[in-house]
Every structure is written in C-alpha cells, then in structure tokens.
Amino acid sequence: MYRTASGEEIFVIDGHTHFWDGSPPNQKNIHGKQFIECFYAYHSNLSPPAEKWSLEKFEKYDAKTMHDDLFIHGYDDMAILQPTYLTDFYKAGFNTTERNSALKKSHPDRFILNGAFDPRDGNKGLEELHAKAEKYKLKGVKLYTAEWRGESKGYKLDDKGSYRFLEAAQKLGIKNIHVHKGPTIIPLNKDAFDVGDIDDVATSFQDLNFIVEHCGLPRLDDFCWIATQETNVYAGIAVALPFIHSRPAYFGHVMAELLFWIGADKILYGSDYGIWTPKWLIDKFMAFEIPEELTKETGSVLTMETKTKILGLNAARIYDVDVEAQKKKIRAGGGYAHLAQAAE
Questions:
Q1: 180-214 pLDDT, tens per residue?
Q2: CATH no. of 2-336
Q3: How many angstroms separate the CA atoms of 156 and 82, rounded?
Q4: Which has the closest alpha carbon to 157: 132, 120, 190?
Q5: Burial zone of 268 (CB within 10 Å; 0-12 exposed, 13-18 middle, 19+ buried)
Q6: Staple partner for 80: which of 112, 184, 276, 282, CB 3.0–4.6 Å?
Q7: Does 218 sit behind a cis peptide bond, omega within 30 degrees of 0 on the bond before it?
Q8: pLDDT at 337 > cutoff 90
Q9: Do the Cβ atoms of 270 and 310 come closer than 8 Å?
Q10: What is the pLDDT of residues 187-196, one digit of tens each?
Q11: Contact 193, 184 (CB under 8 A)
Q12: CA 287 to chain centre
C-alpha cells in the first residue's frame, strides 16, 4: 500500500514479478550463465547504488526475501507471478509456474499465479495448459517468443500453432496474455521479440487482453501505433520504469508517448522483481512529472488519478480484483501491520 502525504491510499498491483533460480547448480550450459549475467547487467546499470545486490543474491533469492521486498519494504499489495521456463538453459527451469505456486500457496491473498505455454509443444503442450488451468485457476499466461527450444530460436504469435493455444486459452477463461516484447537477453535473438505479431492476434482474439511487457522497447513507436488501434492491447512498463533513475528524460519521453497514444487506462506498473525492487521505483514514480516541453507537445500529464490507475487499478480491472474486498482480506491476515506500526 502506498500512502500519499495527505493520507490517500493507493492500491498497488505489481504486474511483473519472478521467483527464479539462475544459480550455477541450476545452469544447464553456458547459456544459463549468460542469461542471468545479462539480467544482472540490467540490474547493475539501471539501479541506484544503494539498491544493488550481489550477483550471488541475484542468482537465487528465497521466498521470504521476495515477500518482504514486495510487501513489507515495498508498497505492493498484490503481485503477479510471471513464469519464464527456459528449460534449454536451466535444469529445473528458470522460473516455473510450479516453483511460483509455492508462493501463491503461502500467501494466497497477495499473489496472482500465471501460467505459460509454448506452441512448439504441440498437443502435449495443450494438454499441459488444460491441466494447469484447472489446477491453478489461471487467469493469465506469460509468453516468451524468443525462447529457444532445440533447434528453434523463437516463434511468432500469429503462427498457426500459436492460434491453437490462444483459442484454447480463450475457451479456458485465460484472458490475459502477457508477452515479453522488450529488450533482448543474451543469447536470445532481438528480432524474435518484435511486436509485429501482436497486431494480428489482437484483432483476431477480441476477448483476450494482450499485455505487451516492457512496452515493446526498443520498439516503442511500433508498439504505440499498434496499441492505439487495438483496444485490447496494453503496455507493461517494467524495464521502462527503472530509467526514471538513470535516464529520467528518456523515461519522461516513454510515458509521454504512451499516454498520448493509448491513454492512462492501458498502462500497467511492474517492478520486474528481482531485477528491481518496488520501493525505490514507486517512490520515484510518485515524485515524477513529465517534463514541461513534452507536456506541451503531447498533452501528457502524470496526474494522481493517472498514477493510481497505472499502479494498480488497471491490473485490478483486467484481473477482476475487487480492490476494497482485497484490502479487507489483507488487513484481516495482518498484512498491513507494518504500516500501522510505522504510523505510531
């Protein structure tokens, strides 16, 4: 929960979090080492000095550390767990729905558990999607179109195989399709994260929401042109958000463009934990204003209403979260006890 200086409560849903194991014992090959070290480079280069972790902690953190960073030290009320399997790089997978489910089980009112699918898995993958949808009551999935699978180094959402899985997701009530369409990570190929395939599937599957994680960076213009015409395409601002520290003018440009093209109702906050932690990101976001020259050109302003939508209300709407009911559940479970103690 974030409280403004005037005492206003802002409900926060972190749209992009992970509980990963990138440690050396889990690395299957050199690519597992490359991948986690590339993540760590993003963390090191874009974080304030006081927020930097050691590589050892970054490679594998425990459940308590994650819970406390999100909900005790940070302002998150809820967080969406987004899996990234990478089984070609990691022996037990990098960040699986099964691993994430332990967090959901321990803190059911705090976490939303998402699944994943890969159309290259064919009929077996469809069976697994059905089983996980039933077991975990999935409302969303996370897709990684540049993931390697044997000789294949990626796939497109508008492939015939992808259509089969999207059709299945729609029938299963999985309506939120989160797709990594952002910066590349070694050794994955940049072009496999291109946003062009979002256009076709968004048109074809009007009952699904396509949340383009990292808002297509470095393809911001392409994303905006697509998302402005497709009413069911949203922008996740994980990865864009930490530029608020290292390159605030660039972050202002990104936010001005997103607000100009798609508006405040289609932008979702995400910390990308454990690359970054929520507290410093939200503190800086709440204090941030779009530079005056950009506001004059685009009309974009980060009002309190806009920030409140981005930090939680937009995600609550597409995930059917009753915010007031959720606050009561968290309070009843003692989840806001640290806030009360801090106020005393």
A1: 999 999 999 999 999 999 999 999 999 999 999 99
A2: 3.20.20.140
A3: 19
A4: 120
A5: buried
A6: 112
A7: yes
A8: no
A9: no
A10: 999 999 999 9
A11: yes
A12: 22
Q: In angstroms, what is the C-alpha Rg of the chain?
A: 19
Closest CA to 113 of 96, 84, 143, 136: 136
Q: How far apart are CA 240 and CA 258, in angstroms?
A: 11
Reference 228, options 250, 199, 251; nearest CA is: 199
Question: Residue 83: what residue type?
Answer: P
**Taking a C-beta distance cutoff of 8 angstroms, is the pair 278, 84 a contact?**
no
Say how many CA atoms lie within 13 Å of 30 toward its Cβ.
Answer: 2
pTM, rounded to two decimals? 0.96
Q: Which two tokens stand for residue 254?
A: 């990104």
Residue with tokens 């996980």: 132
Residue type, 261: W
- Helical packing angle, 196-204 and 220-229, nearest 10°: 10
Domains of the chain, residue spans: 2-336
Q: Which of 64, 66, 65, 60 is nearest to 79 (CA)?
A: 66
